[in-house]
Design a protein that fits this description.
The protein is an alpha+beta fold. It contains eight helices and four strands, in the order αββαββαααααα. α2 packs across α3, α3 packs across α6 and α3 packs across α7.
Length: 171
């Protein structure tokens, strides 16, 4: 047999309906503020992180990234997935393989703030010099594999896919 005990109400174990309503009203504004803050993570400049690309002790360039939504991740994955027709289900297309190199470059491109994206990845002079056609190709040219991996790890963290020990402890 289990019993439910609510703590925090004046001397009673179970709050009355009036106490629950009063508590709800008292915390309603805080809840709404929290919900709105959570919903506006894409617009929040505090969520941007600066990435500095350094080699041999010299800073070469830097750019800022922001969190990506689940839809952003899915859209990038879909663009980088090769599909084939199903042999068992007429007309259905099934995913065959994901071009992970292009996928990681696309995530970095999409996560870069627009101002930095224009200056770095969409730099027309760079495109001419390196015979590039897209900003995603520029990511491949400018970043080494390990650098791309580190940037993708950071994108995952700020997008909520990897929680720190402190965040886990809070939950």
């Amino acid at each position: 047999m289990s019993t439910k005990t609510t703590v925090g109400y004046a001397g009673t174990e179970e709050p009355t309906a009036e106490e629950r309503k009063a508590d709800l009203r008292a915390h309603e504004d805080a809840l709404l503020d929290g919900l709105l803050a959570a919903a506006s993570y894409n617009d929040d400049e505090d969520e941007t992180v600066e990435i500095v690309i350094s080699r041999r002790g010299k800073d070469l360039f830097s750019f800022h990234i922001h969190p990506l939504s689940e839809e952003d991740f899915q859209r990038c994955r879909k663009k980088c997935t090769k599909y084939v027709k199903s042999r068992t289900n007429a007309g259905a297309r099934i995913p065959e393989e994901v071009d992970t190199v292009r996928y990681r470059s696309m995530l970095i491109y999409e996560a870069t703030v627009p101002e930095d994206r224009k200056k770095i990845w969409d730099n027309k002079d760079l495109w001419k010099a390196k015979d590039l056609v897209t900003g995603v190709e520029a990511v491949d040219v400018l970043l080494k594999a390990g650098e791309k991996n580190a940037v993708c790890d950071k994108i995952d963290i700020i997008s909520g896919y990897e929680l720190t020990e402190e965040e886990v402890a809070k939950n």
